[in-house]
Design goal:
Blueprint (H helix, E strand, L loop, with lengths): L2 E7 L5 H4 L4 E3 L5 E2 L2 E10 L2 E10 L4 E3 L11 E4 L4 H11 L6 H10 L4 E8 L2 E12 L4 E9 L8 H16 L4 E6 L1 H9 L2 E13 L11 E4 L2 H10 L6 H9 L4 E6 L4 E8 L6 E7 L2 H17 L4 E7 H6 L2 E3 L11 E14 L20 H11 L1 H15 L3 E3 L7
Parallel strand pairs: 1-5, 2-6, 10-11, 16-17, 18-19
Antiparallel strand pairs: 3-4, 4-5, 7-8, 8-9, 9-10, 11-19, 12-17, 12-19, 13-14, 14-15, 15-16, 16-20
Helix pairs in contact: 2-3, 4-10
């Protein structure tokens, strides 16, 4: 990356966009000519670059070594009119793949479950982090886009956002099951909130020029939502039906289903990404059908000029299915698709048992419970239902789910 010679001076007009740079520990900023000069990595379009900033001394916000930002009276969590732009900036800084269309759809259909952590300073709100609690179906809520500016991590901001999302999912959306796909960086926070590992998923890159075997005997056509819903009902896999409907509406998406004369055998959905197109979900009866659908999706993006796509693949299918790690030897080079795993996610669900409350057993018979205590009580009450859902997903859904919808959508 070439270092930019341009320098952005933080002012009252742009502090709501760049105010996360104003925070510092005592003695850390070196102030020259009444400015603190900082250089940080910022996304510009599809690329990252080093951007220089000048921060006026009067805009510096000191962070205490003992107290955390969420303990300040200036810290708030709520939804703001600029939620999409805030989450977009956070997503780009994290190197994530969401487009504006993804984020707009997520926020619009989130029904009040979008949260922005901000710090009130100089009569402006400085966004620090984000989170979305998304209603998936009658029982399931999905939490995604838990993001904090890199300069402000380890302050407890992600945990406070997670608590807001959990309270919304449990108390406002009335969901008995709450899940997420965790990055290794965020997993420690989720562990501490009672989330348990379910299965591993690998964000992988796939070359669109990959060739699988030619498969005949199936008809293919664009997804018909009613037919896909019937297919999922046969599989007892309708938990995320609402997400499939939303993904089908994203501009530029390509969705294909495979069928015999009698019935559907599987389907794949794919959509544009900020960095690369994304393939998923992919659900199919067999390896053969999954290979056919993958080949068609890859061909589509290759014809549009893309060399690579991204896909989130359950680890089960990197070991026993149509994919193989490019660093390993495939079972059959023309029966598997070569992928390069980039980084892992862990699918997790909040699964809290009473005997885990060791430090401070809680009396839920009282009348004056906080919202966080009420949310925890709901999680305890839903232990059996969540446990049964996790077992069903691993046993019945993962074997036919060759690709997920992505960590933001489940």
């Amino acid at each position: 990356m070439d270092e930019s010679e341009d320098c952005i001076a933080i002012t009252h007009d742009n502090i709501s966009s760049y105010g996360f740079l104003c925070f510092h520990y005592k003695g850390v900023p070196i102030v020259l000519d009444n400015f603190w000069n900082r250089s940080v990595e910022i996304s510009v379009g599809d690329e990252n670059r080093i951007q220089k900033f000048k921060i006026p001394e009067e805009y510096l916000i000191e962070i205490s070594e003992s107290g955390k930002i969420p303990e300040s009276d200036h810290y708030k969590i709520g939804s703001t009119p600029a939620s999409m732009e805030t989450i977009k900036l956070l997503s780009e800084r994290a190197g994530w793949n969401q487009t504006k269309e993804d984020l707009n759809s997520m926020i619009y259909h989130g029904q009040g479950g979008t949260f922005i952590a901000s710090y009130n300073f100089q009569n402006q709100k400085i966004p620090l982090g984000s989170g979305v609690s998304f209603s998936v179906n009658t029982d399931l809520s999905w939490i995604g886009m838990i993001l904090v500016h890199p300069e402000l991590r380890r302050q407890g901001i992600a945990r406070s956002i997670m608590n807001a999302c959990l309270e919304h999912a449990r108390l406002n959306q009335h969901k008995s099951i709450v899940g997420l796909d965790a990055t290794p960086l965020g997993k420690q926070v989720y562990d501490s909130l009672g989330f348990k590992d379910s299965f591993a998923i690998w964000r992988s890159i796939i070359n669109t020029g990959t060739k699988a075997i030619n498969i005949s005997g199936y008809g293919t056509e664009s997804v018909i939502l009613g037919s896909v819903k019937n297919y999922l009902e046969e599989k007892d896999a309708t938990e995320r039906w609402g997400i499939i409907e939303l993904l089908n509406e994203i501009p530029g998406s390509k969705s294909i289903m495979a069928r015999t004369s009698a019935r559907i055998k599987g389907f794949v959905m794919s959509r544009p990404g900020r960095l690369k197109p994304f393939i998923g979900p992919l659900i199919a009866d067999s390896n053969e059908v999954a290979l056919l659908l993958m080949q068609l999706a890859l061909n589509y993006w290759k014809d549009l000029g893309y060399e690579n796509v991204l896909m989130d693949i359950p680890e089960h299918h990197l070991k026993h299915s149509i994919f193989f790690d490019e660093e390993k030897t495939p079972d059959s080079t023309n029966h598997q698709i070569q992928v390069k795993p980039l980084r892992p996610f862990i699918r997790m669900y909040q699964l809290v048992a009473v005997d885990e409350l060791k430090e401070k057993p809680m009396d839920f018979q009282g009348l004056e419970l906080s919202t966080s205590e009420l949310a925890l009580k709901k999680a305890l009450d839903c232990y059996e239902k969540t446990s049964a859902f996790m077992a069903k997903e691993k046993q019945d859904i993962v074997p036919i789910m060759f690709g997920t919808s992505g960590p933001e959508w489940s």
